[in-house]
Write a structure and sequence with these properties.
With 449 residues, this protein is an alpha+beta fold. It folds into three domains: 4-104, no CATH class; 145-304, no CATH class; 309-364 and 395-446, no CATH class. 46% of the residues lie in helices and 15% in strands. A six-stranded mixed sheet has the order 7-8-6-12-11-10, sandwiched between helices. The chain starts with 10 loop residues before the first helix and ends with a strand. The model is unreliable at 1-11, 20-24, 118-132, 136-143, 385-394 and 426-435 (pLDDT under 50).
């Protein structure tokens, strides 16, 4: 049974229940979400005012800023108390519901009749010649997945060929033997007929639209000769699209996602960019737009559609948190700069406050990667190789390293570049760290004083 002590702490709720004569209902999510949004705005404003107060040299201005900060802190405390009240009322209502449910279950057990005892079985058992009919076996469901290269997937989105590319990859999934030829009648049966005899089918489009797709993909994805569709390989498709060499690891995309709406198809083509990367380093939305050709707002919609998760990254520096360093990094990083207090001395000196800032997010896709297979041979056949891909003219601004040893070795070679190495994120937050950074990944910045 649930303890009754949780039900005796809220006297206001008991009085409200007696007056209204009805059971309490938990508050709506809109009320709680409004309070949380207001708290986020107050936290952002407090951070800005703190930086302004530290950088200001006018005493009167500092005094007025301190008053505003105290007022906002008082409002923040009131919102915290309101959230505690909502959670307490919800917890009380939930435990009351549990007690009532246990009472109903106990009453149901007492009212259920006792089962009658079985009669004594005879000493000899006679069997009938007719055997019991076995239930029909269920047909096994096949989960199809097709290999997609991130370089080609981004080219589909940029050149607005995602619907044609979806049909191409579905035909490649049907041709699992790798013959490279699919009959035109079979393609019509797969994509246009409602209930064909073949188990591999989707009724996606009409026959008229399928003929249009065949015309659009002619010379890019396939060649139609008579009643047969000759599918091209990845190397020839890359040459036809001008996408260049195949970079990253290939990704396995479920065929059911390619047989969905046009928006979902584009979202999963875009998600291959994150799944095919060797390391999920921090990357801004602007940099992702330059790499993929997808606008920032569309990136948010595609991430939500494909289930891509975001990971927060925090950079920790060896510089002390004082006015001089605050002014220096505030001009460079803006509002992203905050105070990092390391009580245990895990990343900085023990009980010392240092400069830290919020880095761009990392993105983790839910798609699986596939072995590279013949990717090296495909790249040999691709005749488009640029100088930038060989790294001759690249200008690095920052470099991310997986280990401290590698970061230190590269820092000794090139000290003029910011070098970061991963500190991990599996530790407990103390009171000085912000709750929204829970589960974040921390990076150490190598720099000279």
């Amino acid at each position: 049974m649930v303890s009754q002590e949780l039900l005796n702490g809220n006297k206001e709720l008991e009085e409200r229940r007696k007056l209204e004569g009805v059971s309490y209902k938990p508050p709506r999510k809109d009320e709680k979400q409004t309070i949380l949004d207001r708290q986020r705005k107050i936290d952002s404003t407090l951070h800005s005012l703190e930086l302004w107060r530290l950088m200001s040299e006018d005493p009167q201005e500092r005094e007025s800023l301190s008053e505003n900060i105290q007022a906002l802190q008082a409002e923040r405390a009131e919102l915290d108390n309101e959230l505690k009240r909502i959670r307490r009322e919800k917890r009380t209502w939930f435990h009351e519901w549990l007690i009532e449910d246990e009472k109903q279950q106990a009453a149901k057990k007492t009212t259920d009749p006792q089962p009658k005892p079985l009669p004594d079985l005879p000493t000899t058992i006679t069997t009938t010649p007719q055997a019991a009919e076995k239930p029909p076996k269920k047909q096994p469901t096949i989960s199809w997945k097709v290999k997609v290269y991130p370089t080609l997937a981004l080219a589909y989105i940029q050149q607005k060929l995602a619907p044609v590319a979806a049909i191409y990859h579905l035909l490649k999934a049907y041709d699992h033997e790798g013959r490279g030829v699919v009959s035109r009648d079979i393609a019509r049966e797969i994509f246009t007929v409602k209930k064909p005899a073949n188990a591999f089918h989707w009724r996606l489009i009409t026959w008229r639209r399928l003929r249009q797709i065949f015309d659009q993909g002619e010379g890019i994805f396939w060649t139609i000769a008579g009643d047969n569709i000759h599918l091209y390989g990845p190397d020839k498709v890359s040459n036809n699209l001008g996408a260049g060499r195949l970079r990253g690891r290939p990704v396995l995309v479920p065929t059911g996602k390619l047989a969905a709406s046009s928006k979902k198809v584009k979202a999963y083509f875009y998600a291959t960019f994150d799944a095919g990367m060797s390391r999920n380093n921090p990357m801004t939305r602007q940099s992702r737009r330059r790499a993929t050709g997808v606008p920032e707002r569309t990136q948010l919609e595609y991430d939500k559609e494909a289930g891509t998760k975001r990971l927060t990254n925090i950079a920790v520096t060896p510089f002390a948190y004082n006015r001089e360093n605050i002014q220096r990094f505030a001009w460079e990083r803006g509002k992203n700069v905050f105070k990092y207090f390391d009580a245990k001395g895990k990343y900085a000196k023990k009980r010392r406050s240092v400069i830290a800032w919020r880095m761009p997010n990392s993105y983790i896709s839910s798609l699986e990667t596939a072995p590279k297979g013949r990717q090296k041979k495909h790249n040999r056949k691709i005749d488009l190789v640029e100088n930038l891909e060989r790294g001759n003219d690249l200008e690095f601004v920052r470099i991310y390293h997986p280990t401290a040893q590698q970061a230190g070795r590269e820092f000794n070679r090139r000290p003029d570049i910011n070098h970061f190495y991963d500190l991990g994120g599996g530790f407990t937050l103390d009171a000085a760290r912000k709750p929204k950074f829970k589960g974040a990944r921390y990076w150490w910045v190598l720099a000279t004083e």
